[in-house]
């Protein structure tokens, strides 16, 4: 597909119109990732240079890569790293199979066992902004005859995004790094994560996760739930505290067969969402009579080894939810997802053992 044909793709038109009204860098990053997903790419990482660490590439947002956010890219082995080569040259670099290539993967790709990827630089038109301003690592489900057309569209998307970066970059989406003394929440975060790692059951873990996420983000309320592997329903033990008594929705429950609205979008797309004006979001379906008012919303899926395990939802922070809030909650989501997977495996093992004992 030629660049001219790629420019006529419906998603390019939609992306261009939406990006034009984005006022925040984080919103634009979400738009790039969402468009990447719409093109059928299951895993991707959007990386930007961080001036606080000598402009090293940092994953600012990812798709299908649990725990990748805020990861500083580094080589997995000595040699020419494909991602860095694409970033410095300003040209897209394909590696269908690292094992058969002279290029090396990044440590992130190595950790996630990515066998091949396409590295697309965020390069604007040369006569305007000649420097590459970031990188999109896209991992197609398979490399086939349709892949070049998809990548051509993504290249066009990345060019458009790069042209808007000078307008978006001055907005402080990523706070200036400070010392540990200036950021006491980091110590609190570490302590909270450690406590979550030492819980003995899903219910206790869910309550502890919600308490810490609410405190660290300044959220009024929220919920944490896990996916029942037998039914696929979302079970939310935390609904039994605080907000459950306040909520006046008829027929309220702690088990959701098919969540809708913003929470349903998070589960369906396995992608976090920040909605500081929730009713204007396309996925919003409003709230039923008697529901607690939601002024701001953030939802983060909990994924373990590619499997959806649950989600964390928070609402009504006094100020807008931001990238720091998302980073904090993502850390809890990673631990919650892994812990739920372990708890469910242990539960299944006990049930299997009991069935065998009953047969003896």
Automatic annotation (TrEMBL):
InterPro entries: GAF, GAF-like_dom_sf
SUPFAM superfamilies in the cross-refs: GAF domain-like
SMART domains (alphabetical): GAF (SM00065)
Gene3D superfamilies: 3.30.450.40
Taxonomic superkingdom: Bacteria
Domain GAF: start-end pairs: 201-350
Protein name: GAF domain-containing protein
Species of origin: Chromatium okenii
């Amino acid at each position: 597909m030629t660049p001219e044909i790629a420019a006529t793709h419906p998603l390019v038109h939609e992306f261009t119109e939406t990006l034009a009204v984005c006022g925040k860098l984080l919103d634009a990053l979400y738009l790039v990732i969402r468009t990447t997903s719409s093109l059928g790419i299951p895993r991707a990482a959007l990386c930007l240079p961080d001036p606080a660490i000598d402009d090293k590439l940092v994953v600012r947002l990812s798709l299908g890569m649990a725990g990748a956010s805020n990861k500083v890219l580094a080589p997995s082995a000595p040699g020419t790293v494909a991602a860095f080569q694409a970033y410095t040259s300003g040209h897209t670099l394909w590696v269908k199979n690292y094992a058969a290539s002279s290029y090396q993967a990044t440590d992130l790709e190595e950790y996630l066992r990515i066998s091949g990827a396409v590295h697309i630089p965020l390069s604007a038109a040369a006569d305007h902004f000649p420097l590459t301003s970031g990188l999109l690592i896209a991992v197609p489900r398979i490399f086939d005859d349709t892949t070049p057309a998809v990548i051509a569209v993504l290249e066009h998307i990345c060019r458009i995004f790069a042209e808007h970066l000078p307008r978006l970059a001055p907005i402080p989406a990523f706070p200036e790094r400070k010392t540990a003394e200036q950021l006491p929440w980091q110590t609190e975060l570490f302590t909270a994560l450690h406590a979550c790692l030492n819980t003995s059951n899903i219910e206790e873990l869910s309550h502890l996760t919600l308490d810490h996420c609410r405190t660290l983000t300044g959220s009024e309320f929220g919920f944490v739930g896990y996916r029942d592997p037998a039914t696929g329903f979302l079970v939310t033990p935390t609904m039994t505290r605080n907000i459950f008594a306040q909520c006046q929705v008829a027929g309220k429950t702690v088990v959701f067969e098919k969540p809708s609205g913003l929470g349903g979008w998070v589960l369906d797309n396995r992608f976090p969402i920040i909605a500081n004006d929730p009713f204007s979001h396309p996925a919003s379906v409003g709230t039923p009579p008697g529901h607690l008012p939601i002024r701001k919303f953030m939802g983060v899926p909990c994924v373990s080894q590619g499997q959806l395990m649950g989600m964390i939802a928070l609402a009504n922070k006094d100020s807008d939810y931001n990238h720091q809030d998302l980073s904090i909650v993502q850390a809890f989501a990673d631990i919650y997802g892994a812990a739920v997977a372990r708890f469910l495996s242990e539960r299944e093992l006990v049930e299997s053992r009991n069935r065998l004992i009953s047969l003896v």
